[in-house]
Amino acid sequence: MSAAGLADDLPEPPYYAVIFSSLRTAGDQGYGAMAERMLALARAQPGFLGVESARDAEGLGITVSYWRDAESIARWKQHAEHLVAQATGKRTWYEAYELRVARVERVASKHVAVEPLPR
Amino acid sequence: MSAAGLADDLPEPPYYAVIFSSLRTAGDQGYGAMAERMLALARAQPGFLGVESARDAEGLGITVSYWRDAESIARWKQHAEHLVAQATGKRTWYEAYELRVARVERVASKHVAVEPLPR
């Protein structure tokens, strides 16, 4: 992933994407620390390729994680620590969410010509 | 789509997603008006199912639009007015982007129990 947050160094498709769109409940309630921990944990999983994430001022967030295959996603879903986070997310952190598993078939990009300065 | 911005009323999969992740250049340069116009135009296309969009404070944006099939996406890509927007985007509005076309295979959701008030 580039410093600027685009997953621009993935292998050629096909690979998989998990599109997670969510509305947060009010207050942090441990969410920030969990999100950071889950990101670090996901990066260490076999088959993890990259991640992109944005949350706007109104609280709508979209995180797309990319994976080598559906098996890698299924394994990560069953990871013990991730299961706890999923349960707490459902109960506490998310007012609503949509999670979609999709097979990426085609990619087009515009890359920055030079590596941007760290932000 | 719910008032709150989640595409939570789509048909059962399979359907298609266009995941567009981008870094904006500085300044508006006509971007806001174009984005609004393209959204209205996309909604009117055959096969359009819904859209979710978030841009964070650092300028990273993710827009995911959902479509009935790959043909609907191909048709929208070739729409005359959209072609102009794509060219201007490449030249002016986006420092970098990744566009991925993916086939949604599986969905899990948590819906809000009551319809939220308009924001």
Largest sheet data of chain A: 4 strands, antiparallel
Q: How many structural domains of chain A?
A: 1
Tally of DSSP β-strands of chain A: 4
**Residue-averaged pLDDT of chain A, rounded?**
92
Q: Architecture of chain A, according to CATH?
A: 2-Layer Sandwich
Strand order of the largest sheet of chain A: 2-3-1-4
CATH T-level fold name of chain A: Alpha-Beta Plaits
CATH class of chain A: Alpha Beta
Could you explain the architecture of this structure?
The structure is a homodimer of 119-residue chains. Chain A has 3 helices and 4 strands, in the order E-H-E-E-H-H-E. Chain A has one domain (15-104): Alpha-Beta Plaits, CATH 3.30.70.100. By secondary structure, chain A is of the alpha+beta class. The mean pLDDT of chain A is 92. Chain A is globular and about 40 Å long. Chains A and B meet through strand 1, strand 2, strand 3 and strand 4 of A and strand 1, strand 2, strand 3 and strand 4 of B. Strand 4 of chain A pairs antiparallel with strand 4 of chain B.
Features:
homodimer, 119 residues, alpha+beta, Alpha-Beta Plaits, 4-stranded antiparallel beta sheet, 3 helices, 29% helix
